[in-house]
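User: For a benchmark we're assembling, each entry needs the component sequences followed by a predicted structure for the full assembly. Here are entry 17's components. Please fill in the structure.
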Amino acid sequence: MTRLVGHLDLDYFYAQVEELENPSLRNLPVLVCVYSGRTGNSGVVSTANYRARELGVRSGIPIAFAKKRLAGTEAAFIRMDREKYAGYSERVMEILRENVDVMEQTGIDEAFFDITKRAGGSFEAGTEMASLIKSQVLQRERLTCSVGIAPTKISAKLASDFKKPDGLTVVGPSELANFMEPMPVEKLYGIGDKTAKALQGAGVVTIGDLARKDIPQLDDLFGQKMAVYLHNSASGEDDEPVQERGKATQISRIITLKRNSRNQDEIMTQLAPALDDVHKRVAEKGLFFRSISVIGILSDLSIRTRTKTLEAPTSDSSTLNRATSELLGALVGELGDLRRVGIKVADFEESKEQSSLSEFLR
DNA sequence: GTATGCTTTCGGC
DNA sequence: TTACGGCCGAAAGCATAC
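Assistant: Structure for entry 17:
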């Protein structure tokens, strides 16, 4: 049975929210930035609106670089406000949830959904539903999004990416092969620079090239698991179901140090608010964690981590602080100066009250 | 060989 | 000339047990 899978992506999300709240920004280059606090311009661009993209500024580049690129224009540099965007995101996801059979949020600004049932398997009906979702998001939240409808998750994501902003692309089963074939392989989820290079060596440039390779050929290059994944993805036969995501599996916080340092006290002082924040978020959700990691980023921006797994889950802040201190010591001992440092907790269990409740219900 | 668990790195947005 | 965040989930890598 052919599925109707959808993918929704909020257009240049953070920057669009800023435009929405301040319409005078609409025709300017708008950059939502993460300021690290080290120097005035230290940090990166998180999201750029389309006007800024036309001028060569995109997400991930240093703010100082963007400043140079946009010298002489009236560009708006805006500090990122994640909580604000999360509010908009939650309301949009709720609209989506009301209109689909199953939905799977995969980021703050995107989600997969399945409408096979309520569209009765019809792509015409599916198109109407996608249209309705888009207009509800626009009416209720004043935001545009791009939506794709196709038979699988991978093809739905390609479809939402096909026309943006404010796009709606529907790819029925009979059009699927022609739609995917000409696209470069790196458009496929899970194929980055490294895999794309390796594929290019084997004469594979487009998704169509990849679909024509058989599994044994790919097995030699990438191993069996990856071979099957690549083959199915490129052939439009990926069968990953759309599934509601459960609770978060990790909670982390990373900061940039005022200056590079290997001094444990100096680092712990700056890390303390992040530790408090992580502990607060864990407590709010009633979680117990068993794994604690310290993340260190060196001056060359490479990332190193050290992890400690506890005997038993805890929510105790002094345990968190002690373990962090210990892991940090190990990390700076081996690596020397750090530029940024972070803390992560994971391997969650429900709080005792909740687990006895679920036991009782069972 | 296979399943499992833990640590580290990778890659998307 | 250089410039450089903060999250998340999953894969990869490795060890151990059977």
